[in-house]
Amino acid sequence: MLRPRFTTCLTLVACLALSGCMQANVNFGQPTTPYKEQVLEGTGTDKILVLGIEGLISEHAREGLLRTKPSTVQELVAQLKLARKDKDIKAVVLKIDSPGGTTTASDILYHELLSYKQQSKVKLVAAMMGLAASGGYYVALPADHILAHPTTITGSVGVIFLQPRVAGLMDKIGVGMDVSKSGSLKDMGSPFRAATEEEKRLVGAMTRAQAARFLDLVQQHRSLEPAALGIVASARVFTAAEARDLGLIDSVGYLDDALAQARTLAGLPEDAKVVTYRRRPAADGTYYLPGVEAEDSRPALLHLDLDGLLPPRAGLYYLWTPAYGQ
What share of the chain is helix, strand, coil (3-state, %, to 5)? Predict the structure, then answer.
């Protein structure tokens, strides 16, 4: 049974198409206004930069109905590039609210954050909000201190291979697919037929290899006890308190506590500036307002959150799937 949210959006799209008000591939491009610093509080010279990672982590641009949004990777890397030019930044608070995403995008963000931290010598604090699972936890690993909100869900340290299947539907409607291939495994993972046992074995091996990399990085950064590592390897999710007891995080608190921790680690005074990057300044900017805003701040005529409605592309994911699309 289709979810009401999905059905409503499909109905809206169909109505627009039938009325001639919608064309395929309609968008107004990506934002072109460069990021600018906005001061959230403080008057000192030294700065704490607040960055955010929200939603599905992907290296692909997010296609909306009327606008293409930059990918998570593009947004964060662009902000880190700007931060590298500012020697007054002494600490970064990374606010995470994500179920994870693709293995490659998660690994890119991990690498970029670790590289920035090592080169700039800043202190990095990860602040987990409602959800920081799988790839959302992966990107927190470079942090000097990981803090979770009391209600955070985190963990899901593992990999999942997602592959949509349409063979059954094609059989029902009498549609087939002719394939000419150069090797027996050239169409491995095809959605148009069931997987063979050999293909299942190969996909399983790839999944285990990516999972091993994830666990190795967790152990490298967190030095878990063997028993704790065994529990984490099950890829289950944990509450904030459970994650702290296992050693996945350092403390439980609020965003104010993460900022205080950043000040302590970097040896900053209480009047240190807290800043973020936005394309347009917000009149009432707070820590909780997303740092990345579209160039056009006017309300959309029609807004469809398609990211959470359509199934992910086929591939390997550091993703907690129950949270995807919620």
Answer: 35, 20, 45
Name the burial class of residue 297, with classes exposed (0-12), middle (13-18) and buried (19+) by CB atoms within 10 angstroms of its CB: exposed
Exposure string of 176-208, with b = 16+ CB inside 10 Å and e = fewer, is eeeeeeeeeeeebebeeeeeeeebeeebeeebe
> What domains sit in the chain, N to C, each tagged with a CATH number?
26-154+238-309 (3.90.226.10)
pTM score:
0.80
Average pLDDT rounded to a whole number, residues 143-152: 98
Digit-coded pLDDT (tens) for 13-62? 444 443 344 444 444 445 568 889 999 999 999 999 999 999 899 988 76
Q: Around Cβ 150, how many Cβ atoms within 10 Å?
A: 10
- The one-character DSSP state at 42 is -
Catalytically annotated residues: 134, 186
